[in-house]
Amino acid sequence: MFEDTYPLEWTGRQAVVTLPEHIDVSNAGQIREELLSVINRGAIALIVDMTATASCDHAGAEAMVRAYSLGPPGRVRGRRGVLRGDPG
Which domain holds residue 58? Predict the structure, then answer.
């Protein structure tokens, strides 16, 4: 059985992954792998909740983009990624 590193909630085939307070090179690879795992488990909508995220460097942003782009070709089409949080 797979253990999720970050909080994960499912509603049907929609998944919400809550990311940590700081995202950088030290955890970006792990985040990318977790997001890919959720996609590969059948999520048709993946919401990345960054409400509690105070900082996200280029490695973190790249991890999210790569997870989206590396998903299986037939399943990425129509998938939507939503970043949720306080932009201010």
Answer: 22-84
